[in-house]
Every structure is written in structure tokens, then in C-alpha cells.
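User: Assemble these into one structure.

Assistant: Restating your components, then the assembled model:
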Amino acid sequence: MNRTDNSTHVYRRVGQDLWQFIRSELKPKGKLLTPFNIISAPIILLGLVLIILRFAKGLGATTNLSQEFPWGIWIGFDVVTGVAFAAGAYIVTFMVYVLRMEKYHSIVRATVLNGFLAYVFYAGALTLDLGRPWKIVNPIIGNSFGVSSVLFLVAWHFLLYMMAQFIEFSPAVAEWLGLRKLRKILGSLTVGAVIFGICLSMLHQSGLGALFLLAPAKIHPLWYTEYIPVLFIVSSVFAGMSIVIIEGTISHKVFRHQISAEHHAKHMDIMVGLSRLAAAALFVYFFMKVLVLIHGMHWNELLTPMGYIYLVEVIGFVVLPFIIFVKGAQNRDRKLLLSAAIITAVGIIFNRLNVSVIAFKWYAPAHYIPSWIEIVITLAVVFGEIWAFRWVANRMPVFMASPGWVKHLDDGTEYPEPKGVLTGINAKTPGLQPVKIKE
Amino acid sequence: MQFTGAAAGASMLLGPKNAFSVAVKKDTSQQYAMLIDTTRCNGCQACERACSEKNGLPIPENKPEAGYERNTGPEALTVVNATETKNKGLIFSKTQCMHCEQPACVSACLVNAMYKTEEGPVIWQEDKCMGCRYCMIACPYDVPKFEYGSLNPKIRKCVMCYDRIGEGKMPACAEACPQEAILFGRRGNLLDIARKRIYDHPSEYVRYIYGENEVGGTNMLYLASVPFEQLGFRTDLGTTPYPEYTKTFLYSVPLALLLAPAFMLGLRQATKGKNDKD
């Protein structure tokens, strides 16, 4: 049986068994009644109902947004914070594909998947916030290019980066479906997509900060600085790292059975390496924060209520996690590293909300506080992303090893085709079994 | 890789030309503008009623009162406020869109829905707007208002009766004012008139034309008998046009798209080991 015949055979099987395949893949793979499911499922369901309500009743009836505060947590948390959390993808791909740090290769797929889903869900939540979402294609098509707008840049970069990340992840989809030819093509696109994606990431991570450059009279002077874009990109490094560490630690437990022994052994090394990087970024960020404070000469603001918030942010959520990261990396203490990562992640939420919501019009007598509907929908978006991540990780080679034929494909050697047996979809139980690669 | 280069090239070609043309200082003396003389206003609200009638909005029910601030909103594009002052008694001043020469809202808008016309007025185009409300974040005067209650929400703001100007008429508020407190005309002429009033009646005016240089200059100009901060005007906005604040960042975009891929490919080459294929 030659290769071409085999490929057409696979494509035909995809068509024939598609319905059966989809049905079987939609079935849950693990236990249904886990504590996480019991909490998250009702929130997702309630969130879906509330999303319908938001479109049926409008923004005024469902949110606490006002003429004074046009942006709330759907922008400040979902978009501005969510994108910072997704930064791990561009950093890890930079380390692996540009600097060739092979040590981190095993976490690339999980990180890219997490980044891609974060963009789909968090940035997708942007459509909830749009007052006229049926016009969402305007910045992409037609004669409506507002090229002098930072938001125009951010919108385009979201779109292009989602495509780049999908290309980066797509080999895993092809391996899952057993599409060898496609896997070969998609695999060859990875480095290009990675480099393009890193450029886009750097620009829109900083671009999200640059959005707020247009509000100099409305953002508290302790947060408003012409260096917001630089602060945003530096903080995206430790934001991304903290999420990779948290996700890595949880995945390591949840998907334990899928992870190869070799990867298990390296896991601590990877976590320590990432923690060192996070610590370095935190230090650089702290240094810049101090420079900006001195340069802006706003230290007299430090002893005001907003100043206390600023100090909590900088000392409690930058200096403190820096120290814990360094200590944890020295002692190779999993718990310390995880707690440092959690503090860092909370700090990023705090910082992004400070710039976009809390320090925005800090002088207003009645400040914006999100409605319960806004909070529930936001939680539903976060849980939805985790569900999607779990669904993919349980089916595609994210933590588990790629099917045997991939290694041959990469080496360019012929793979001895066992007759009638194909990994993936036309096997009796669809989905991939963990395969150990022997060197 | 070629794709990245092409994208960078495209943004070099497309971006800077359009993105930075706003920074060029234009001669605005021939643009339409309004001069609002707060020493002449008596708070009769004729402008508010004319505006509501013209735009199909409800007629305002409350009156300007000292110590109580009325705001523009989706149903009131202009409002008159009253301020009690020590030396000059009760002063009324009209609020609406300032029609900046280089508007923050226009540079914020990613779909060109907010648009600075050649004639001067800043208008909003319904068919383009996607309702992101970034214009509201950016506007230093908090002018654009959003119809939160509507399922087909619009951004509402004063557009200086752009359609009436096109028909050769003056804006509804200027036409309705019985006190001639609102003067409609060319910006250059109005600045001359404002200076002449200050020169002729130095005791009646402070020597300042609000809007001449604020945020790079606005097409709404104000005269007053007391310093403007006493009337609740924002005097801390500076004279830098708002698009300048994001200019440096936007400049760096084509540069980054051009240089970063080359830099990273170089790094990838430099870190290549013996066993690496490419």
C-alpha cells in the first residue's frame, strides 16, 4: 500500500465515520461528579442564560456600566487580564523555537493550547461588551480602517495571533485525526507561525496598555505614565509564566496518567526554570516601577488612599512573589513555587484592574462596581476555557505522546504501515492511546 | 517569513501615512466654530429646547441651579449649568461637544465612526460604529454618551448640526439663543471677535479664550468673566493634542514588525546545534 492511497483512505474514513466520531468524542472521558465539575457546571449554565439575557435586554439592564464608566470587568478582566495570562504561549515558543531550549519542548503544546483558548474565550467575551456586535467585522473589512487607533492594531493582532496560535497547535489536531499529509504540511509552518506570533504578541501585549495612554486626565497619576506599554509587556512575561506554572502543576496531577515517565522526571526542572524567568521579569518590572515613580515625581501621592492601593500592588504582588520565587527555586520547593505563581497571577489581575477600572476616574463620587451578572458571566468564561482545555487535552496529544508515525514523518523515514490498523478515528475506540517513543 | 515581511511592509505603507497625518498642524481658521460668551448667557435654556427639537429628544424638565451639576446624556446633547461666584454673581455656561481640532475620540475609533469633517464638526457615523465605547474612555470632556438602554444603541453627541450647516443654516442652538451668547462662524473670525471683546471690555472678561489652545485647540471657544476653573471647566488638560499620546507607540509598530522577525531568525540561526536540520 503506497502513501497516497493510504491518505485518501484516511480522508474517506473521516467523511464516513464523522458523525459517529463526533458523537463518541463528545462523551466525557473522566468522572463526571468531581468537585470542580459540581462548582463549574452550574456557573457555566447560569452564565449561558445570562449571556442570552444580556443580548435580549441590552447592556444597561445587565451591567453596571454607565456614561462615567464605559468599560468594566468584561474589558478590564476578561480582555486586558486574560490576554496577559495568555502570554505564556509567546514566551515558551520563543524559548523553544528561537532559542532552542529543548528542555521546555514538552510544555509547548499545553501552553499554546492554553493561550489559544484564552484568546478565543477571553477576547471572545469582548463581543459581549460591544454595544453593536453585528458591526464587529468593520475593522477587518470595508472602508472602515481606523489606522490611527491603538484599538485597531489590537483588534487585528488578536485575529492574526489566534490564527498563528491555531497553526502552532494544529499538528496536534492532525495527529488526533490521523491525517498524516496534513500533519506534515502543518508541522512545517510552525516556526514561521511562532516568529510571526511573537511579533504580534509583543505589539498587542504592549498595545493593551497603550490603549490607556489616551486617558491621561482620567487615570490616577501613580498608574498613568507614558511607559504603560513597556510596563504591560514586561509584566506579561511573569503573568504568562505564573499561569504556565499553575496550569503545569494542576495538569501534572489531573493528566498524570497521560504524561510519560521521561516528562515526569523533567517536570520539576521545567518549573524551576520558569520560576527563575518569572523572578527575573518581576525584578525588572519592580525596577521600572520605581524608575517611573521617581521620574513622574508623584511620591507625594503615596500616602493617599490610592497610594496605599499602589503600595499593596507593588510590594505585595511584585516584591513578595519575587522573593518567594527565588526561595522556591533555590529549595526546589513545589509548594513555594505554586504559591508565588498564584500571588503573581492575583497581582496581575489587581494591576490590570487598577489601570483599567480602579484608578480610572478615581475621583468620581460613585465608582463603578461590577454587577453580579457581569461577575457570573466572567466566571463562566473562565470555567468554559478550562472545560475546553480539558476536552482537548483528553483527546489530542497535548500531554500524551504523539502517535508513532509522527516520529517517522519528522525524520523523513518510511513508516511501516500495519494493514487495516490506523491510529485515531477508525479504531474501535476513537482517540489516541499514549504511545511511548523509544529512542 | 515572507508573510511577516509583507505585513510589516503593508503597515509601513498603510499605517504611518494615515496614522500620523493627524499630527500635522492644520490651518483651522476657516473651519466652522462657535463662540460662547458666558457673560451674555441668562440660562433661559432656549438652546437646549432647540437642540432637543432638532434631534427629536425630550424637552428638558429641570432648570440650571447653582451647586447642582447637570450632565449631557444620550437624551440631552447640550445642557446649561449655573455657577454662583463671589464677584460676578450667577454665571451660566453651556456644555456640549468641544469639536477638538485633533479629537481624542477620532484617534481612538478603530472604525472611523467618529470623524473630524473638513468643515470642523466632529460627527458620528452609525453604519460604522461597533459600540466599543473607547471614544468615551478617550474623550477628555466625557462628551460621547452611549444608549445603554437600547438594543440598537447609538453614541450620542453634539455634531454641530452638521446637516444644517450643509444646508447653509446655523446650528439650532446658535439660531435659538435670544441673548446672542452663541456666535456661529469661522474659527479665525471668532477668535478675532473674542479678542476684541476682551480688549474693549477688560473689566468684564478674564483675559483667556478657553478652547484656543486646550488639547491642541477646539472649535468651541468660550469667554468668561471669572477664571474658567471656577465655572467647572477642566483647566488641567494641557495643550497637547490627544493623538500625540499614542503616536510614539504607533510609530514603533512597523519598526517592530520589520526588525523583530529578522532578529529572531538570527537568534534561531545563532543557537543552531550540530544535529539541528534547519
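The beta strands of chain B are 32-37, 79-85, 89-95, 114-116, 122-124, 145-146, 155-156, 182-186, 220-223.
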